[in-house]
């Protein structure tokens, strides 16, 4: 009986000792990895800062203006180019005669309505 | 069991296991019993200690397993491996980077490890052109173990130095302040020295915050508007051969400074190249007699205190003579003028008479309420205090009515005019971004009705008065011109002018104030030799408004629509009314 319990304890000590060293080495390894990752994060953050500064530098308004002048055919927006949705007319009004002709709902009138609509639209664009 | 041993044993030091097991336990007596009791007590104490230790361990186990107490602290220890935190960034209201800190290598040497200082100096001088060869050689010859060669190298210089492979040369990483937008907002952002200490602008005013905080400091500045303002002022300065210029764009509803320019300016990346002239912030530190733009305050005072109404009139037929002073009009009409006409034609005589009617005390009180008599509180350390006349004589009252005899900074001017047009609420000017739509509390310094009348008068100036060139079609600019003769050595100079225009748009519901001042402009052929505010500053304001309004989401309106006509009508201007007033 005595011998059995001694054996059991010795075994337990052995197992826990092994487990402890195992865990310890694992922790050391993980700590190494953590340090590496932290260093990587710091380097990446620094890289992001550098790129951010470069982005801001390259986006200097004076430079953008020069580039736009050289490569784009755009100019500043004038007040006549800005409108509100309420300023749009609802629909181009049809002439009264055409409206009367369009009154009976038939296939032919629908066909005829199409070019009229196109005309109205081009009028709107002019 | 050894029968030969004696029953009694007096030696307490005898090891326990030699003692015979008592088959029939004999009652112990005397010292033996005492020894047993002592050991018993010791056992109990030791046991209790162990129990306590196990309890502590158990409690800790529960804490770690159940509440995750210690682990995070351990993890943080490792994350905090880079304790040197960089100075915080400075960004504009849209998050555009204005100042940041980048790691940059600094080169130092250990002279004791360097065998041939002359040769090393020669090689280094070839790579680092701004440090002289003899200087490097002298430093390398020093009897120390640490000398700086050059601080804050570029990455390519670092690479080249490393390629030399000279032992004894080392790099140390330092934070370097970088201003990617260069000159654009130089006076606002300011600059910091090599050791990251703020020396000017926000860098100095917010030095402690920038050191401690990790999130960027958000300014109220908008880089796009800042560029537009700087561009237009630079154009006027060049066109009129001026010595400088300044301008401010302010949100009149919140007091936020959206753009602030002072020319000439400098590049904060190389503060060494700046001189006194370029580093001087004309917009906040400089104080100037602003000229006729002060008539905004004079008229507002007369209207607000009930001294005059829009249909009152004053005799501006003849110049006023007081002692050796003569007050005359630049756009002389030589007749009685109504209050709107005085404003429209910028009549000095009429304004002076209005001020005299109001009196010195009232004028002092009104200007004081608008914050024009003491230095404003602002985020920049470069703040100029106004030059207030002392004593304040009646002649001062008259000249201050049209902006001479009291020097204020453009920033104070912009803040006060914002209060006049925004319904009468004075709000502190700020460079720090406020949440959208948040209007900080301010003081009501004049009535909303006066503010509304002033807006009509300001529009009148642009529609048909001295400020026609400031018009930006669709955006309803209102404003006031000002041309001040600068004082040099106690005398007013006829040709040293400060020409300004303060504009507000859209005048029906003011949102932004645009102020431009040009320092000592010279007339050109296009301006018919004029160098006044209406010719020099007003066109710049008009162009700034036309360029910035679409960016800031201000919709253009039809200026001829009946509602707008009606809302901007100044009633007392019919010719009949004028005649009645003149009689």
Largest sheet of chain A: none
Number of strands of chain A: 0
Oligomerization = heterodimer
Spans of at least 5 consecutive residues with low confidence of chain B: 573-583
Tell me the radius of gyration of chain A.
40 Å
For the biggest sheet of chain B, the summary is:
5 strands, mixed
Secondary-structure element pattern of chain A, one letter each: HHHH
Low-confidence stretches of chain A: 105-126
Q: If classified by CATH, what would the architecture of the largest domain in chain B be?
A: 3-Layer(aba) Sandwich
* N-end to C-end Cα span of chain A: 110 Å
Number of helices of chain A: 4
Biggest interface and residues each: A-B, 26 and 32 residues
Overall number of strands of chain B: 20
Report the sheet-strand fraction of chain A: under 5%
Q: How does this structure look, described?
A:
Chain A is mostly helical and 126 residues long. Chain A has 4 helices and no strands. The longest helix of chain A is centred in the N-terminal third of the chain and has 57 residues, at 2-58. Chain A is elongated, with a radius of gyration of 40 Å. Residues 105-126 of chain A have low confidence and may be disordered. In chain B, strands 1, 2, 3, 4 and 7 form a 5-stranded mixed sheet that branches. Chain B has a 5-stranded antiparallel sheet with strand order 9-8-20-19-18, with helices on both faces. In chain B, α9 runs antiparallel to α19, α11 (295-304) packs across α13 (348-358) and α13 (348-358) crosses α15. Chain B folds into 2 domains: 90-110 and 142-218, Penicillin-binding protein 2a (Domain 2), CATH 3.90.1310.10; 226-582, Beta-lactamase, CATH 3.40.710.10. Chain B is an alpha+beta fold and 583 residues long. In chain B, 38% of the residues lie in helices and 18% in strands. In chain B, a hairpin with a 6-residue loop joins β19 (491-505) and β20 (512-519). The longest helix of chain B is centred in the first third of the chain and has 38 residues, at 30-67.
């Amino acid at each position: 009986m005595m011998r059995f319990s001694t054996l059991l304890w010795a075994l337990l000590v052995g197992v826990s000792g092994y487990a402890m060293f195992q865990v310890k080495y694992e922790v050391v390894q993980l700590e190494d990895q953590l340090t590496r990752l932290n260093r990587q994060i710091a380097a990446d953050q620094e890289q992001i800062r550098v790129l951010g500064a470069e982005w801001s530098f390259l986006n200097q308004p004076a430079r953008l203006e020069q580039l736009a002048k050289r490569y784009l055919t755009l100019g500043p927006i004038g007040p006549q180019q800005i409108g509100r949705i309420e300023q749009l007319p609802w629909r181009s009004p049809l002439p009264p005669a055409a409206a009367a002709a369009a009154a009976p709902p038939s296939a032919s009138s629908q066909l005829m309505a199409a070019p009229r609509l196109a005309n109205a639209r081009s009028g709107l664009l002019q | 069991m050894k029968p030969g041993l004696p029953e009694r044993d007096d030696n307490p030091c005898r090891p326990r296991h030699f003692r015979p097991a008592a088959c029939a336990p004999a009652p112990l007596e005397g010292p033996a019993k005492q020894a047993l009791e002592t050991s018993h007590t010791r056992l109990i104490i030791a046991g209790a200690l162990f129990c306590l230790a196990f309890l502590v361990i158990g409690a800790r186990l529960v804490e770690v397993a159940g509440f995750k107490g210690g682990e995070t602290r351990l993890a943080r220890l490792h994350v905090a491996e880079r304790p040197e935190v960089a100075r915080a960034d400075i960004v504009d209201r849209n998050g555009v980077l204005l100042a940041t800190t980048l790691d940059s290598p600094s080169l130092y040497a250990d002279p004791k490890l360097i065998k041939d200082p002359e040769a090393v100096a020669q090689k280094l001088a070839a790579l680092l052109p701004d440090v002289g060869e003899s200087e490097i050689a002298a430093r390398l010859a020093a009897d120390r173990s640490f000398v700086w060669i050059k601080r804050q190298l570029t990455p390519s210089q670092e690479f080249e130095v490393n390629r030399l492979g000279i032992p004894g040369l080392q790099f140390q990483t330092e934070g370097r302040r970088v201003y990617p937008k260069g000159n654009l907002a130089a006076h606002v952002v300011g600059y910091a020295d090599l050791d990251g200490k703020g020396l000017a602008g926000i860098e100095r005013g917010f030095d402690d915050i920038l050191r401690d905080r990790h999130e960027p400091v958000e300014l109220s500045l908008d880089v796009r508007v800042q560029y537009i303002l700087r561009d237009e002022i630079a154009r006027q300065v060049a066109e009129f051969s001026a010595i400088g210029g300044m301008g401010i764009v302010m949100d009149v509803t919140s007091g936020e400074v959206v753009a602030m320019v002072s020319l000439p300016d400098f590049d904060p990346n190389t503060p060494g190249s700046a001189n006194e002239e370029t580093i001087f912030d004309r917009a906040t530190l400089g104080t100037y007699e602003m000229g006729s733009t002060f008539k905004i305050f004079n008229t507002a005072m007369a209207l607000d205190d009930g001294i005059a109404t829009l249909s009152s009139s004053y005799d501006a037929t003849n110049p006023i003579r007081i002692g050796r002073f003569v007050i005359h009009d630049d756009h002389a009409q030589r007749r009685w003028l109504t209050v709107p006409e005085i404003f429209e034609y910028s009549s000095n005589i009429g304004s002076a008479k209005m001020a005299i009617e109001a009196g010195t005390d009232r004028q002092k009180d009104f200007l004081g309420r608008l914050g024009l008599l003491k230095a404003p509180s602002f985020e920049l350390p470069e703040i100029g205090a106004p030059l207030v006349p002392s004593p304040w004589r009646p002649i001062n009252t008259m000249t201050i009515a049209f902006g001479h005899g009291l020097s204020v900074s453009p920033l104070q001017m912009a803040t006060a005019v914002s209060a006049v047009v925004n319904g009468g609420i004075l709000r502190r000017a700020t460079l720090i971004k406020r949440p959208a739509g948040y209007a900080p509390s301010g003081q009501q310094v004049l009535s909303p009705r006066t503010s509304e009348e002033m807006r009509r008068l300001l529009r009148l100036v642009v529609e048909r008065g001295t400020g026609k060139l400031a018009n930006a079609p669709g955006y309803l600019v209102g404003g006031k011109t000002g041309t001040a003769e600068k004082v040099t050595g106690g005398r007013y100079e006829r040709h040293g002018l400060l020409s300004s225009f303060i504009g507000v748009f859209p005048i029906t519901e003011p949102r932004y104030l645009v102020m431009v001042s040009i320092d000592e402009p010279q007339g050109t052929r296009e301006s018919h030799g004029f160098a006044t505010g209406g010719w020099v500053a007003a066109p710049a304001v008009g162009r700034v408004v036309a360029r910035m309004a679409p960016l800031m989401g201000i919709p253009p309106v039809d200026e001829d629509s009946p509602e707008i006509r009606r809302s901007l009508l100044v009633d007392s201007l019919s010719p009949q009314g004028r005649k009645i007033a003149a009689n």
